[in-house]
Amino acid sequence: MPLPPIPPPSPVIFQATGLKKEFDDGRVAALQGVDFAISAGEFVALVGPSGSGKTTLLNMLGLLDAPSSGALVYRGEAMTGLPDPARYRAREVGFIFQSFHLLGTFTVIENVQIPMFGQGLSAKLRAARAAELLDSVGLSHRLHHLPVKLSGGERQRAAIARSLANRPGVLLADEPTGNLDSQNAAQVMELLARLQREHQTTLVLVTHDREVASHASRLLTMRDGKIISDSKAA
Amino acid sequence: MTFLTIIFRDLWRRPIRTALTMLGIAIGIAAVIALVGMASGYEKGIVKQLDVIGIDVIVSNMEGGLMPKAFEESIRNQIATLPDAAEVTTVLMQMLSVEDAPMIMVSGREWGGFTWEKLTVIEGRLPLDASERAVVLGTMAAEMLRKKVGDTVQIETEEFSVVGIVDGHSLVENGAIILALPLFQSASGYEGRVNFIDIRVPSDADGDRIEALCNKIEGSFPGLRAVRASEVVGTSQGFKIAKAMSWSTSILAIIVGVFGVMNTMLMTVFERTHEIGILLALGWKKRMIVGLILAEAAVMGVLGGIIGVLLGAATLAVLGTLPEVRGLLEPDLSQGLIFKAILIAVGVGIASGLYPAWRGSRLSPSVALQG
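The joint structure predicted for all components is written out below.
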């Protein structure tokens, strides 16, 4: 009887080798040689104390910042050589920030449409997709409210809907529950975990919070600009 | 939501600042409309006058401001002998302050010349001969001077009877005091001198023949200029100066507008550093950021331009009623001028937005997000 085929390993999404980042002409070393690989569909939590380099690393994965040295590869391509960083940020990754970063003069549904500009979608399609995404995060009753009228949890859910606007393969979340109370934080984490499972999205999440990190399948612990442990979550 | 929604939402964020910036542009554009409209109105008035009288060629001195310098009247007879100079008449025209009118055109015309032909007597009569110490007033001149037939009018130190009110069928003619040439020469101290020789050519004379006549006059009388009536406005030094002054003053006003918009757009970029960071993080291309800032500046230009045209039109309407202006020119607000003004306003907007847009697009997303 033939053996069942071995499932192929998930393709590597991010591969970092000797990644360094220095600020202030080298006086501050935010990253001091970081190596890791993240596979497609993984839910990775970057944990560690403040100043350990978590957000710097996340910014590099989102092409918001460039390494001072070392190599960072996305789907086999060096990220520093990507011809169109804006396209990468628009299509490949979705950002979720601690402070939500919703635009205050635009309604919730308009905020979700912002990343869709320049993607060749009609205004009608943008609005329909935004409404659908907001429905999926439970905000269909808040479409035309300004962010200021929303609770913290609702704002973060709107930001999550926005991060999914162009159906990215990777979500990058920087302390997504940092500004929320424990109840809202739990709801947001459940939502993120559900969306990650449903869409098989790669989720890289920065957090201080062990409870939040416990949702991840893998923990990368950082200290002083280095990864000091890489473990599967219990 | 469209790109336009984003532009207007951003502009509406600080309505007072946006409105004041647009007002800055509007004032510049209003200056263009008012000053250029006045210069153009003056030009049109002269063109209409020449057309009504039926002048084909005008001979005048090259020098002088709005009114050319006077020259010897005797040249008239020499020009009259030239082929194609079918009818020749002389005029001495000056802008003078007469009684209550701060500035009025006084036109001394060769007695019996064709420049008297198109005057329609509304009231009274024309002077009986060149020696009668009499004037006729254009309808508007009569209104400005508050004179009627039977009154007297003082030109420089001499007094003349008003014997008629005439319709000259053009603004310049209607705004003038008209009298026989020798009387005005004596009153103004220009005895034996004129500043225009007006010529009619035969009806079958084509452009080449008129050109030849002009060349002949200019060749024979150095210092004099002979131009076709249709070209007199374009070649006159006075008109050129008036036009240059009106445009240069307008350009100064526009430059002030440019810096106003640039200041606003720079402040907008500084204030919105964080927002630009968000847009960049969400995948907006730098050229979209540039486009957004330029479009906002251009929209302010268009709206400021429209307000400026309205302000300028109102200014022109007011200027047209001033005693210094009435009778001399009819302010002209042509479609071409409106189009030019709006185009300038958009140009001002875009030019002022270039540097702020460049600054905005140079922001690093990670730094801007912290801003």
